[in-house]
Structures are given as C-alpha cells and as structure tokens.
C-alpha cells in the first residue's frame, strides 16, 4: 500500500473530511521540500494532540525509510549452439581485423593514433588545454579600424537624433522616396508609418513621414535609442570597464603579491606592508566602483531631466503649477503622521491567552488581569510538560515479605496546587475584593446624587430688563394705538331671508 493511501486511511480518524480533500492534503505535504516543513504543515493542520503526533511521526518515518533497490537482471550470456553438418572455414593466413595483417599505410595510421590505457597516468601539464594562438598584427589592426568605424557611426546617429527635430527641419531638405523598400533596404527601427501605413526605407530614415508628416519615431523611443547608443559608445570607448567574457579554455591570471622572507628580514614588517597593500587595492576598487555609480546616476538624472522638459514643452504654466500643488498635497496626505496614524484596539475584543485583558482598565484591574494571565500560562506549561512526558510522577515502592522491592510509576491525574498557585489565588481574591469595594463606593456616591428642582433654580438668577423712560412711554403709546385701530370685520349678507336664517343656524 502506498504512503498516500495509508495516510488518508489514518487521517479519517483525525479529520471528518472526504477522501478527496484528505488526498489533496497528503499531496501538498509530499510536495514540501524538507522534513521540518512537512512536520510544521501537519502540526498547523492537526495540532499537538497525541494521536496527531503519532500520525506525524509515522508519516515522516515512512518518507525517510530507505527504498530497497530492485535486483537488476543479470545479462544472460549468449549461448551458441553448434550447427551440425556445417563445414568449418579453413584457417586463412590473413585476418582483416588483425592490425598486423593490415597494409603498411593502415598500420602507420593506427600507430599515429593516440592511445590512452588505464594503466598509463598523465601529468597535469598534458591534461591542460593548449594555449590559443595570439591574434596577428593585421587582425588587430582590422579590429581597431572596425572599432573606430563603429564609434563614428554611433556619433553620427546620436548627433542626428539629438539635434534634428520635426519643427526645425527645412522643408527643402526633406527626403521623399516612394520605393516602398523595393529599391532601398527596409528601415528596421520603424518599418512603416503608424499614422498612414506608408513603408519606410533607409533613405527616408527617422525623418517625419513624407506623405502625412507624422513622426516615425516618437520622442520616448528616441530617448530610449539615445540611451542604448550611449551605453554602446561607453563600452567601445572603455573596454577595460566592461571586459568581454573570457572563454573557458583561456587561462585567467591571478594577481600575486610576493612576501620576501629570509635571513635578516623582519617577517612582521613584511606582513604589515602586505596588509597595507591589500587595503590600498580595496580602497582603489571601492573608489572606482563609486565613480562608476556616480557617472551612471548622473546620466540617468540627465535623461530624466531631458524627458521632463520635453514633456512640459507647450503646456500651460498655470496647469503645471496646479499639478505641482496637487503632488505636494498628495505627498502630504500619504506621509502625514495624523493621516496615517492607526489606533489598534483589537486587544479589546481578542485576547490570545483568554485572560480578558483591557488596555482601558485601571491600575488595580490591570494587576488582577496580569495575575490571572500568569496563572493561566503556568497551567499551560504544566499541560505541555505532561504531553512531552516531563510532568510530575509518583514512584510507588512495595516491599514484599521476602524483602523483594517492587517499584511502580504512577501518574497523578489531579495534582494538588503548588504554593505559587495558592499565593496567586490569595492575591487574586484580595484584588477582586478591592475592586468590588471601589465599585460599591462609587455606586453609593452616584446614588446620593438626586435631582433637586429648587437647588437647580437657585443656581440661576431671573433676568431683569432695564430700559429708559422714553422707551417705556413709546411702548405704551404703541400699545394704545394698536388697540384703537383694531376693529371688527364686517360680513355682507344677501337680501334673501332664507340665506340669513341658514347662516344663523350654522352659527
């Protein structure tokens, strides 16, 4: 039975899941690289129960068990059956496969071939590859000329890309060619115009399209091409900075530093001089690396500045100012301490130890919570020790009549509380009593506070409005005038007596 099937069978008793899910869990465990990772995986899923630990131990032992190699079948010797009534070949004086019977020319060929027998040993110098032939002066001169031509081509292309622009090109200097890459080779950097689709040849090149006037190469692509060409130019100008990768056969000479020692020579001074040399070389290498990093950083800043100013060309300055202000506000919002401050109050709701800790409680309540937490942690440690087999055990010694002593180990199911637990219980009870007394006192003080209407009214004074005599007279005259002007509204009724009677009934 395979490891997967046995593991799934054992997992049925531990996890109430279907067999497909259990098989997937076993496949995930088998895909892990190390035994420790597998153990952590199963512990995270099953926990530290005794059944789970036994399952993990069995699973890991099955994985690490050596696989017995299958006996390889021995090659059977070919059995030659004697053929009856077949005339044997007469022995000829010449054997085609025997080198002694071959012609002299073939003998010389065989003798000239190198033979390496198992008993013959070879030296290190024989095993080393032969040194490569040095390039001749003519090839070196040709290589140098090719390098100069490449540099000139790069300079010309860079000059044209950096100086020329679609706005400052003279219309009379524009090159128009309608060969569609049939007469001249295709311009591979931009084979056709993305606006009208015209095929571009090498003669027209990177200039704007002669048909629609659209740019063949955008500004961003030009900047990228300039950056790549500058890198190639730097590589050609300074080959020592970026040396070509040497072939595997070529020997790499290591730099050696000699240390002279002999009669009358102080070895300590020689060692000091050697260490100073090494430090100077390290400083030199660090300075060179720093210089190269600064140069690359400077080039990058120049490219960024060039792209920035090219993008800002023809944009309203007020819009740029508004964008800059927006960036400052967004930066302030992202980096402000007030905006990014997080108050985590998860401890009010989730407690890992189950001791109901609360950061907003008083000092006495915090002390009580800490005591309970310590007691809980001590209990957990005792349980862990019992699971590991390091808990307290009792040895029972029985002496028989014949003087034979029998020692028995007995496990304690209900262990009596330690002195530390008793002290903790006393302190916890005392703290709980203090907290309860304070709560009772505060509740009594709160119950004495009864709302009294008269006391509440006595706190406030009745408002008094004081005015001048003239203002009082004007108020009285206005009141009398309003009463005089007030009249009863008149209602006009029709002359019909029936209508009058109806109105009186309604009233």
Automatic annotation (TrEMBL):
Pfam families assigned: zf-C2HC5
Biased composition (Polar residues): 118-127, 237-249
PANTHER family per UniProt: ACTIVATING SIGNAL COINTEGRATOR 1, THYROID RECEPTOR INTERACTING PROTEIN RELATED
Stretches assigned to coiled coil: 363-390
Residue ranges with Acidic residues bias: 415-426
UniProt-annotated stretches for the region Disordered: 65-148, 236-256, 408-448
Record-annotated TRIP4/RQT4 C2HC5-type zinc finger domain positions: 176-226
InterPro entries attached to this UniProt entry: TRIP4-like, TRIP4/RQT4_C2HC5_Znf
Name of the protein in its database record: TRIP4/RQT4 C2HC5-type zinc finger domain-containing protein
Record field: compositional bias (Basic and acidic residues): 130-148, 427-448
A GO-annotated cellular component: RQC-trigger complex
Record GO terms (molecular function): zinc ion binding
Keywords: Coiled coil
GO BP field: positive regulation of DNA-templated transcription; rescue of stalled ribosome
């Amino acid at each position: 039975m395979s490891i997967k099937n046995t593991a799934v069978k054992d997992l049925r008793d531990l996890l109430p899941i279907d067999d497909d899910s259990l098989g997937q869990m076993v496949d995930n465990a088998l895909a892990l690289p190390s035994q420790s990772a597998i153990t952590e995986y199963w512990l995270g899923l099953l926990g530290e129960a005794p059944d789970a630990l036994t399952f993990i131990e069995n699973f890991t032992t099955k994985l690490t068990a050596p696989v017995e190699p299958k006996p390889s079948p021995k090659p059977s010797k070919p059995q030659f059956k004697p053929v009856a009534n077949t005339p044997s070949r007469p022995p000829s004086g010449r054997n085609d496969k025997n080198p002694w019977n071959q012609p002299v020319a073939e003998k010389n060929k065989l003798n000239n071939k190198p033979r390496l027998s198992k008993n013959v040993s070879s030296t290190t110098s024989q095993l080393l590859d032969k040194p490569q032939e040095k390039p001749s002066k003519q090839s070196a001169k040709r290589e140098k000329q090719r390098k100069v031509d490449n540099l000139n081509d790069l300079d010309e292309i860079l000059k044209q890309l950096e100086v020329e622009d679609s706005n400052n090109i003279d219309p009379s200097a524009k090159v128009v060619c309608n060969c569609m890459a049939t007469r001249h080779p295709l311009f591979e950097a931009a084979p056709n115009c993305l606006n009208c689709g015209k095929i571009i040849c090498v003669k027209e090149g990177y200039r704007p399209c002669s048909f629609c006037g659209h740019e063949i190469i955008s500004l961003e692509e030009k900047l990228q091409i300039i950056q790549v060409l500058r890198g190639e130019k730097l590589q050609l100008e300074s080959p020592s900075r970026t040396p070509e990768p040497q072939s595997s056969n070529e020997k790499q000479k290591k730099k050696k530093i000699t240390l002279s020692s002999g009669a009358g020579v102080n070895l300590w001074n020689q060692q000091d001089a050697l260490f100073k040399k090494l430090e100077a070389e390290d400083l030199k290498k660090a300075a060179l690396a720093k210089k190269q990093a600064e140069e690359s950083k400077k080039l990058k800043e120049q490219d960024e500045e060039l792209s920035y100013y090219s993008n800002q060309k023809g944009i309203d300055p007020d819009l740029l100012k508004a964008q800059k202000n927006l960036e400052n506000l967004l930066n302030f919002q992202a980096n402000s301490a007030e905006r990014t401050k997080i108050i985590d109050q998860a401890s009010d709701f989730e407690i890992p130890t189950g001791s109901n800790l609360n950061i907003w409680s008083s000092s006495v309540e915090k002390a009580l919570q800490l005591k309970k937490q310590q007691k809980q942690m001590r209990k957990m440690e005792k349980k862990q020790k019992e699971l590991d087999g390091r808990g307290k055990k009792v040895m029972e010694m029985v002496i028989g009549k014949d003087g034979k002593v029998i020692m028995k180990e007995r496990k304690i199911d209900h262990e009596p509380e330690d002195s530390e637990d008793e002290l903790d219980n006393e302190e916890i009870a005392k703290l709980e009593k203090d907290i309860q007394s304070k709560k009772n006192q505060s509740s009594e003080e709160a119950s004495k506070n009864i709302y009294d209407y008269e006391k509440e009214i006595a706190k406030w004074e009745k408002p008094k409005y004081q005015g001048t005599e003239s203002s009082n007279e004007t108020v009285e005259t206005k009141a009398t005038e309003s009463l005089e002007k007030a009249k009863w509204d008149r209602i006009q009724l029709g002359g019909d007596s029936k209508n009058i009677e109806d109105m009186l009934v309604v009233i």
